[in-house]
Amino acid sequence: MKKIDSFTVNHLTLLPGVYVSRKDHAGGETLTTFDIRMTRPNFEPVMNTAEVHTIEHLGATFLRNHSEYGEKTVYFGPMGCRTGFYLILAGDYESRDIVDLLKELFAFMRDFKDEVPGACARDCGNYLDMNLPMANYLAKKFYDEVLSSISEERLQYPE
What we know:
By secondary structure, the chain is an alpha+beta fold. The chain has three helices and four strands; from the N terminus they run E-E-H-E-E-H-H. It has a four-stranded antiparallel β-sheet with strand order 1-2-4-3. Helix 1 crosses helix 3 (132-147). The two termini are 23 Å apart.
């Protein structure tokens, strides 16, 4: 079998950042998949499921309610390796195009102190697996260390 594109990225040199993972076409629309890499693969510890789950709930809720990107948000969810998230937007974008959106998103998650949206038995299949304080911490870390002054090397996959 042919290796899929995401397995051709050199994870030994990949830094936390925002990368265009792929572009697909469906019904005349371009779908851009972003790799929002929050931890350095194989060098830093992966995120635990509780904070990943919390970030997923907060991120999906924020993005789908966003005034500009709400209707363009197709998907926001975790990578299986737990080093980041995928965001799929309807439209043809480059990484730099969504930095301001991600700053809004990660500031929202960093500062969120209320009840996590959808974190109840009726709305979620694993509502007890949440960790808001750690999600706040990870959002702040990514905002401060990556998004606040993002460089080109963190917007393009390494060769």
